[in-house]
UniProtKB/TrEMBL annotation:
SUBUNIT field: Homotrimer.
GO molecular-function terms, A-Z: 4-hydroxy-4-methyl-2-oxoglutarate aldolase activity; metal ion binding; oxaloacetate decarboxylase activity
UniProt-listed Enzyme Commission number(s): 4.1.1.112, 4.1.3.17
Transmembrane segments: none
Enzyme class at the top of the EC tree: lyase
Protein known as: Putative 4-hydroxy-4-methyl-2-oxoglutarate aldolase
Role this protein plays: Catalyzes the aldol cleavage of 4-hydroxy-4-methyl-2-oxoglutarate (HMG) into 2 molecules of pyruvate. Also contains a secondary oxaloacetate (OAA) decarboxylase activity due to the common pyruvate enolate transition state formed following C-C bond cleavage in the retro-aldol and decarboxylation reactions.
Necessary cofactors: a divalent metal cation; Mg(2+)
UniProt xrefs under CDD domains: RraA_family
Membership in a protein family: Belongs to the class II aldolase/RraA-like family.
Residues given in the record as Mg(2+) binding sites: D106
InterPro entries linked: RraA/RraA-like, RraA/RraA-like_sf
Reactions accelerated catalytically: 4-hydroxy-4-methyl-2-oxoglutarate = 2 pyruvate; oxaloacetate + H(+) = pyruvate + CO2
Organism: Bacillus benzoevorans
Length: 206
């Protein structure tokens, strides 16, 4: 039997957003480095001081394979808190991907890793290593509260957070939404007549 987080994998974040009534999506500044990358998994949360990546290194050591690191980097973009070496460690440790409200560097090297990274910006300067950060605590990433164990789903459109206490309900609503969208697509796409049929119905015209 598939884990519920696996059932979310590949579902459009747009449909999940509809199920959540337009809430719980991270702001538009956080996007994937590679638009082909998709993620869906449990949040392993990391709270770090701006520009310091010690907490990320600790998280890579302590997270379980398949976890997603969700990092509150305070939106700070003048120092990169992950580069290709650190993210290579994460990939080797079995981390599914990282969502970072902060900056990365070594863009080409990260592309070559083929490791899902959702981030706010890229810069050149290296991180600090002063403070240990906090692991598995509630954080705010991209303007959304994230608790340890929440389901995180990401694709080319962005990242959305499914609260773990609502995950089964939201999965059910999302699947129903996708089914209805597919039925609408089949009925109203493909010709001028079908397109006008939909639009006339939308505006109450015969």
């Amino acid at each position: 039997m598939a884990l519920i987080e696996e059932s979310f994998f590949g579902l459009p974040t747009t449909a999940i957003s509809d199920a959540l009534k337009g809430f719980q999506h991270m702001d538009s500044g956080i996007k994937p480095l590679n638009n082909n990358h998709k993620i869906a998994g449990r949040a392993f949360t990391v709270n770090i001081p701006a520009g310091d990546n010690t907490g990320i290194l600790r998280a890579i050591r302590e997270a379980n394979p398949g976890d997603l690191l969700v990092v509150d980097g305070k939106g700070y973009t003048e120092r990169a808190v992950s580069g290709d070496f650190v993210l290579g460690l994460a990939k080797d440790a079995g981390i599914q991907g990282i969502v970072l409200d902060g900056a990365i560097r070594d863009i080409q090297g990260i592309r070559e890793l083929d490791f899902p990274v959702f981030y706010r910006a890229a810069t050149i300067a290296a991180s600090l290593k002063i403070a240990p950060g906090e692991l598995q605590v509630p954080v705010s990433v991209g303007g959304v509260s994230v608790k340890p164990g929440d389901i995180i789903v990401g694709d080319a459109n962005g990242v959305i957070v499914v609260p773990k206490e609502k995950e089964e309900e939201i999965l059910s609503i999302t699947l129903e939404k996708i089914k209805k969208d597919e039925e609408r697509e089949k009925k109203y796409r493909g010709s001028r007549a079908s397109a006008l049929q939909y639009l006339n119905g939308l505006f109450g015209e015969k």
